[in-house]
Amino acid sequence: MKLLDKYNRLNITATIITFVIGSCTFYFLLHYILIHQIDETLMSEQQEIVAFANTHHSLPDIIRTKDQYTNYETFNGNTATSFQNVRSGEKEEMRQIQFGVSTTDGNYLVKVAKPLEETEDLLQVIIGVTIGMIALILLVGYFINRIVIKKIWRPFYRTIEEVKSYRLTDETLRLEQSEIDEFTLLNQSISELTERVQRDYTSLKNLTGQAAHEMQTPLAIIRTKLDLLMQNEEVLRKHAQHIADMEQAVQRSARLQQSLLLLTKVENRQFALDEPVQADAIIRQKLAEFSELAEAMHLRVAINDEPTLVKFHHHLAEIIISNLLNNAIRYNAANGKINIELKNGILTIGNTSTQEPLDQEKVFKRFYRVHQGEDGNGLGLSIVKQICEAAGYTASYNYVQGLHTFTINFKPAKF
Q: What does the pLDDT read at residue 415?
């Protein structure tokens, strides 16, 4: 969940709770004030009636008005002043005060009541207007906050987009200044971090490239010396196996050096990945190159492809297809099979094998091998994965119905 969405959700929740509690509190408070005001008016009426009775020893005449009702009842005994809500008829609710008054004619129970209808109407109008104003203020505040907060956070999201699109092969990341100190500090910290990473990456890239190139010279010297030893018949008779082991080790080192150099070039994006490449033609070509090796192992090759044009690099496309076919043949079982399918921009190569299913989390990692003693340097699938990621494609592995299946998801391109 985005920070702005989370803030808005919390803000809306808090606003609704505040609105409900505030409205209810205001309603009851205002209701209490208005009722208290009516009670004070009734008490004033009581004081006037009692004063009149004390002066004239009789009760004042009853004057009927629409906002006040007065009633005298003979009464034997004493009564305390009390307030209560009563109803006149079926609907009209009134606030009434009753008290006792003594005159020369006897004791009377006086009841003075005022209707609450106008008070309730006034209360509803005030509450309605107040709630409407509060709701309008909260609504306007919400939209203003939303607009303002979006504007305030805009530099942050621009920074995020710049960081997401940044690559180590690009120039040093430069982020724009912000009027907000926290965002400025964030941008400065990110820029300094990327500069340090860029320097370390450049040093490591140069070291890897130089080491890969420097390895060629000693390997060439060793290979030359081995050729000289193989031409010496006496040495060859005594140390043929040792020389063969050394030759194999040199070849593996040469392949390792070439693989590392290729990985370095791919990581450094030294290949243009926007060439139109006919993937189905490359598959047919590589199958022809591996046909003798497949026939020697009596493998059954089934291919189902369709013309597929992808945006890629021709040499890199040859490398990933060659590596996958090479693995499908080398690690296959005698009299096994290879299924190749290229449809809708998806290449699938599956093969039988005597090996158990591979670890999906490690299969594309560098130097991963099921058995450490087996031939190969463990970089073939890592190269496939690295090339696909550089081109924006995906490479995956599954073990389906006894077949080790590798899938490359191309994005078909139109030229």
A: 46
